[in-house]
Amino acid sequence: MSSQTFGKPDIEHANPLARTMLKKLDYDQLTNCMRCGFCLPACPTFRETGVEPESPRGRIALMKAVVDGVMEPDQAFEDQMNHCLGCRACEPVCPADVKYGQLIEQTRDAIEDHAQHGAVVKGTRKLFFRGIFPHQSRMKLLGKSLRLYQKSGLQKVARGTGVMKLFPAHMREMEQILPEAASKGVVERLGERYPAKGERIATVALFRGCIMDVLFADTNVNTVKLLSEAGFDVVIPKAQGCCGALHAHSGEMDQARELARVNVKAFMDAGVDYIVSNAGGCGALLVEYDHLLHEDESWAADAAWFAKRVVDISTILVEKGRVPAFAEAAAEGAVPEAVASIGASATITYQDSCHLRNVMKGSVAPRKLMKSVAGAQFCEMRESDRCCGSAGIYNVTQPEMAGQILEHKMEHANATGAQYLLTSNPGCLLQMKLGIDKHGRGGDMKAMHIVDYLYERIATPGGEA
Amino acid sequence: MTETALASKLRAIVGERYYREDMEARVAHSYDGTPMLQALPDGVVYPSSTAEVAAVMKVLAEHRVPLVSRGSGSNLCGGTVPLEGGIVMVMHRMNRILEVDLENLTATVQPGLITAEFIAHIESLGLFYPPDPSSMRISTIGGNIAECSGGLRGLKYGTTKDYVIGLEAVLASGEIIRTGGKLMKDVAGYDLTKLLVGSEGTLAIITEATLKLVPPPRAKKTMLAMYRDLYGAARTVSRIIEARIIPATLEFMDNPTIRVVDDFAKLGLPLDMEAILLIEQDGDPEAVERDIALIEEICIAERADRVQVAADREEAERLLTARRSAFTALARLRPTTILEDATVPRSKIADMVLRINEIARKYNVTIATFGHAGDGNLHPTATTDARDHDEVHRVEQAFAEIFEASIELGGTITGEHGVGIVKAPYLEWKVGTAGLDMMKGIKQAFDPHRLLNPGKLFAKETRKRVVLHHE
């Protein structure tokens, strides 16, 4: 808001990473942090460790110290930047409105420019970030291989023979909880258009996601059907691809921008009123496509058009849709009339998706929907707004911290006594499944995507009401 | 300092993990909540017990290495910036509530305990600990004691000093002292407890505190009065006190503050008002009703444009949140926010607000003012950009003149933030040469080798007084 702006420090850095950071980091944002410390209690890694460098204020101070030439960025610096979950819980509590998420992504982008990855890491990153995620057909192929592995008995053999013991413990654990990969995605199953039941309220497009459509294709199908029940025509543009969030969080900004352009074009061509996401992690990047492409003159306006239309499934249901009645007994086939009279037969609790909550500001709608389910009692778990440790691929790259956070998370989840632990993001869902597996109370708690839970409990379909 | 005997001695005391001298740790402890101040320490130590604190201090005394003890580093006077290097001691690992004594109504806590967590625990027991600095969600009890933090409830309930009745502290020599106790009366010698409260880490390291608790008020009511005339609001404050009413909180926000707070907290505050008073009364229900009605009358008599009594607790909490976020919300205007706490006798509030506005105009700087008007503690807050050296210089000149004006009105240079680095050049203006010498004598008695938080409170030289234009 200042009438006059001041640039970056006039320093010629000898260190190449410092030089790149000086170029890439938004110096105004670094200056805007006034070090009040209000972000500290919101930060999961600060809460776990209690040390200043593990806090947003500390990390920004470290970034600024590098850019200002106070310190050389060493390995510890890079490790610290990677230690951040990127949950962005620090942003809503920041009175000065510092865009921490942008700063950490810019820093990781700079680090990635100079990364000396070993051949294996380099190869794996390239394979996934460039070779697989961006290509829906290859994601499908990967899904099929995973399915083959699961179905062929190889999975059993692998687990039985102890081959999995060759992998690090956290990889073994993840392998255990991976859902069955679908051979067909949402378009293959429902087609590219799915009509509204009853009078059409608006036309929306589904953002199907790359991982969602392979590991959680049922959730995508249920999302479309739920939207239809609520009065929306649903379009699923085939040309869409991966959102680029995992790239952006891992310092592959150019690749993320490339993916964003593909998606902006795909959805503009579809010409819809809203773009619906059912994955907080994807949605949070989609709503920031305007920022991602703001320096790209030929795309900035279209990216803004796109970003303005992105909305989470729960939010659009609550704010725009004809929300059908949900009932716990409906899942067991009880007649709708009987539902109203029954008492609470199930307890549900909810783990916020950080990006849905902190970036898309979508924490109210899911709770409204859950509270509307007849026969179910919603019980808020302590610190449901705190990151579960999944954080994109954080639980794979930083297993120790992720495990510590998850253990605390599950203490709170168990304390609710809930039978259903719902989430709004695939990463969180996998992490919750892992949590139940490792620290759960046994077989009586089930982690589900909120869409699947709700869809299975529609008591009076909207179109027929 | 290289990897020396000192480092290995410190590691032997606290363990490998809890003494660090890598750049990451040094940079992350080179600042606090004060703008434009940064200095690297040589090392950072995280003790877990009084014994460890004492052992560390003994080693440092032996090596003549300075020490800055700190909590969350949220102070606004540069109080925990390690100006002369040395070791920063972070108290976060000592964060337990050791005891809540329901018979004596006291709590004994460690210094690294987060203020808000302590308050939540105390309130869950049906008790009340009034000091509530705006940074309470992150500040520590130890930090509050070192700075003698105030807060919104200072007017009626006093500040941190009124609730600290006993301390355990480690001296510069490494010896441990205990002062006061679970005692409401104790005149055994000089009151070292009160001397240590607000001593800004320059006399001793606080390792344990016994705090007084009080029964909570039975009822509470919150109201807003809005004024198109700034001086009407300021006069209202004086009239309320004159009417023998001491509200629990009596807070003031001027127009620039109202605008940013509303933008931040989305409260729907009226943006066309020149001033808002946030008034809260607590106590027995009948007394609260009577006081609020009387205050309402006073507000209307002083030509408040609108007077609004919060319908319920939820609305009241939202209004309090607005005031609590004032400082940080101002930071959205410009990158750098400099918040001061010039304090005057409450009868002089109107004069002081007038002078602040005049001074801001004179130096062509933006200063928004809010504060604890009931106790005369104002927060004139300049929004600027640290990179604009010319403007920052004018802001400094403006503040020097604000301090001068405050003293002239019978006030002080700092009401609750402390002297630290920022106000050290002005301390003599307030306490006089003899007063300053006496304080230096006290420092000398406690810390003959200048090891504890050196460079704070006492400036190398006192700033020349500004000659005020109307004198």
Written overview of the protein:
The complex is a heterodimer of chains A (465) and B (471). By secondary structure, chain A is of the alpha/beta class. The longest helix of chain A is centred in the middle third of the chain and has 18 residues. Chain A starts with 15 loop residues before the first helix and ends in a 5-residue tail after the last strand. The relative contact order of chain A is 0.10. The mean pLDDT of chain A is 86. Chain B is α+β, with helices and mostly antiparallel strands and 471 residues long. In chain B, the strands form three sheets. A seven-stranded antiparallel sheet of chain B has the order 13-10-12-11-15-16-14, with helices on both faces. Chain B starts with a helix and ends in a 25-residue tail after the last helix. Classes of the chains: A alpha/beta (465), B alpha+beta (471). At the A-B interface, helix 2, helix 4 and helix 5 of A face helix 2 and helix 12 of B.
Secondary structure layout plus pairing:
The complex is a heterodimer of chains A (465) and B (471).
Chain A: H1 16-24, H2 27-32, H3 44-49, H4 56-67, H5 75-83, H6 100-113, H7 119-132, H8 136-151, H9 154-161, H10 169-177, H11 186-190, E1 193-194, E2 202-207, H12 212-215, H13 217-229, E3 232-235, H14 245-249, H15 253-270, E4 274-277, H16 280-286, H17 289-292, H18 297-309, E5 310-312, H19 313-320, E6 325-326, H20 336-339, E7 346-350, H21 354-359, H22 364-371, E8 376-378, H23 394-397, H24 399-416, E9 420-423, H25 426-439, E10 446-449, H26 450-455, E11 458-460
Parallel strand pairs in A: 2-3, 2-4, 4-5, 7-8, 7-9, 9-10
Antiparallel strand pairs in A: 1-3, 6-11
Helix pairs in contact in A: 1-6, 4-6, 10-25, 15-18, 19-22, 24-25
Chain B: H1 5-14, E1 19-20, H2 23-28, E2 43-45, H3 50-63, E3 67-70, E4 87-90, E5 97-101, E6 106-109, H4 115-124, H5 141-147, H6 154-157, E7 164-170, E8 176-180, H7 192-196, E9 205-212, E10 219-227, H8 230-242, E11 249-254, H9 255-265, E12 275-283, H10 285-301, E13 306-309, H11 313-324, H12 326-330, E14 336-339, H13 349-362, E15 367-372, E16 377-384, H14 389-408, H15 427-446
Parallel strand pairs in B: 2-4, 3-4
Antiparallel strand pairs in B: 1-2, 5-6, 6-9, 7-8, 7-9, 10-12, 10-13, 11-12, 11-15, 14-16, 15-16
Helix pairs in contact in B: 1-3, 8-13, 13-14
